[in-house]
Each structure stands twice: as structure tokens, then as C-alpha cells.
Amino acid sequence: MTSEFYKRLRDYYAGIGSVLRGDAEIASIFPNSVDKGISRERIYAEFLRAHLPSSCNVFYGGFLFNLAGNESKQIDLIISSDSCPQFKFNNKDGSGKSFACTEGSVAC
Length: 108
What we know:
single chain; about 110 residues; alpha+beta; 2 helices
């Protein structure tokens, strides 16, 4: 039997999901797919920042690289640990692209 708390938590995330879908759908007003993508990235980045532990950093993506120097393709959002270096010299306010080492990344 599901406890009352888990029912409320499910309803919370269902409501958040509806809001995120609605916000993302509004981005379709932009005719340019890049503009749509950027708008949607911002919506999901703010959701993640509000729900992830403070030990995680959410960046607008760029690419990941590994210790051998191999690079990934374009990534929209990168979540990294607070214990790894941050590469955002040209992205001081956090609204631009960044890149991260795979070994310090939590999710993409």
C-alpha cells in the first residue's frame, strides 16, 4: 500500500510535469528551432536547480571530455559535482555554454 506522503509526492511531480510541458510548449511560438531549444533548456535547467542538491552544478551544455581528451557531441545540459573543476571562463553568469570532464559529471 502506498503511503499518503508518496501519493502527495507523486501528485507534486505530476503537477510539475504538467507545468514543464506547458512551459516547453509555449516555446514553440519561436519559428527557429535553436530559439525553441534554448527556451526549453532554460525551463528544465531551472527545474533541476530547484530540485538537485546544492552539491550539483547545472550548466548549459557544450560538450564533455574524458581524461584521454576525447570529446562528446553537443550536450544541452550538464550536471556536475561540486568537487570537480568548472570550465566557464567565458560563461561567468552561467547563462552560456560550458564544458565538463566526464569523470566529474553526474548527468547530461
